[in-house]
Design brief:
The complex is a heterodimer of chains A (141) and B (544). With 141 residues, chain A is mainly alpha-helical. Chain A contains 7 helices and no strands. In chain A, α2 packs across α5. In chain B, α5 crosses α12. The chains are: A mainly alpha (141), B alpha/beta (544). Chains A and B meet through α4, α5 and α7 of A and α2, α6, α9 and α10 of B.
Amino acid sequence: MQNTIASDHPLTPEEQALLRTLAGLIVPASEEFDVPGADDPTIFADILQSAVAQQAEVKAALEYAAGLDGHPAAHVETLQMSEVVAPVVALVMQCYYRADAVLVSLGMEPRPPYPEGYEVEQGDWSMLEAVQQRGKIWRDV
Amino acid sequence: MSNTTQGRDDAVDFSPADVLIIGAGASGATAAWSLTDTRMRIVCLEQGGWNNPQAYPTAGRDWEARGQADFSINPNRRQLRGDYPVNDDDCPIKIANYNGVGGGTVLYAGHYPRFHPSDFRVKSLDGVADDWPIDYEMLEPYYAENDRQTGVSGLAGDPAYPAKQSVMPPLPMGKSGQTLAAGFNQMGWHWWPSDSAIATQPYNGRDKCINLGNCIHGCAQGAKASTDITYWPEAIRAGVELRTWCRVKEITLGEDGLANGVVYFDENSEEQFQPAHIVIMACNGVGTPRILLNSVSDRFPNGLANGSGLVGKNLMLHPYASIQGLFEEALDGHHGPHDSLWSQEFYETDERRGFVRGFTYEFNRGRGPVATALTGAFSGRIPWGDGHHAAFRKLHNRLTGVVAICEDLPEEHNTVTLDPHLKDAHGIPAPKMTYTISDNSQRMLDFSVARASEAIRAAGAYDLLIESPLSVGGWHLMGTARMGADPERSVVNEWGRSHDVKNLFIIDGSIFVTSAGVNPTRTIQTLALYIADQMKKRLANLFD
């Protein structure tokens, strides 16, 4: 954890630690699916870096979470229903679901869409015959 | 009124322009291109800048995150240099636009339907709103011209339209389109390949679509027809001067009652005055009334060209409903353009449904992993903790559906006004949108949700995600400077000229009399070509 806490980050070390705790609660590691959690050092480093652009919303969420009694794990039901915490959920998801290990586990290529693009099948255009048989449906004026 | 010329840049030609266009988006680009025939000196002022398509989000691993940040559809979230704030607190449908060369076409999906003949005759046919002073037949040649210039993909023979040709083959149905089409066939309902402003073959220097997806945050491939890569290159080669990072503060009025130029802030935030013989507004349904209302004078104390009192009134937005199904089998996910198919089964009025007018279903594809995770988390389908991964995999690539684009009728209490407090970075008063969804629109939304739910269930969905109205969907901004023959009931005449100011033209979505139940961009560009042509035919007596 030490290697992902930056002293010049707008979040205090305490806030960074709480953010990492929340990230692990939102998306924990899974042996069953062979994926890391969102508190994985590489993924959390991305989360921390991305939090800078959203620091006001993230700080508000962390302040809310810090105000709950005891460990956040005791308040998961409350936290996941909270609109104040929603920006942290969005932040965690946007970083977690672009991590190489996660995309590979989903059968996706860890690359941007451009420039390679993707194949999409044409589909069965003969399905239109039923529509054509009905004839004109626009209204004369 | 100010005519400040301080800080004038000697490299800029401030001699009077023959034509000054405000806004380089869908309509401004189209009119500029058309008017180059005249060999007049044409200057366009655009408050944003150019984009490099290869820097659009899909060129990076953070493509989904950027769609909610610097390429958000909402200017209040995006807050880029070219943007201005919009107060939409009193509007259940939030503003969506783009300020830069290409305007909204940079971020639109490219879903590109025409209006129907009946859309221009709503008063005659259904006894509501007003008829347009022009009709489908008059616009058809301009639709065709715009289709060729834009490069429209689709399939001829749609029984929901009069005959029209497609320039290129349709976009692929994909697994998602085929699945949904099967549901619509089971219901016995219309569907057809969407007309799309997306190249399916190399076309006029643009490469073909390679199914990047994420079209509404810019097309890195350049297959989507945004006007920065369609009309503008040709217009500039023909001599049009396009000045970027130039935000217009007001249009000024001469003693003769004609517009004589505009005051604007240039790229260095210096106030400038550009004189002009003709001024064309092309800022769409919020930007255009904002500038007109900010342009006050002794003659027009309530805003330029506002003798009717209708500038900023009759705002129409197209309430959207989103109906998405969850399927057991894997579909397309985020691969492929948003566009694929449409249904206009419920487009024309049938009062047995409980409302007048109608709507289009625009078929969607799927979502990327981030959007899927957020959809699941915020709809309660993906929990925090150990259940996360299994729940995510039940949604991943298994989501598709439709949105309903509902015709909005004009109501004077739906408005764009000037916010008394909010200003942009240059101190110019910002617009405020005030809007309520009418009873007719609400009944239409409810009907669209009910019918789509049936079709998507018939297609095999085991669960549905519904949002109605779609709160983020204020893409279509129309009606706030309406067209008409009566100067007391409209702002511009039947060829786009202000009733009050004879050298002021409006060519964007604000002149729409009614909204139809389709995306408006194709008709906005068609109107721009039509109005430019009317101007060209009348050059000898344009101001009479």
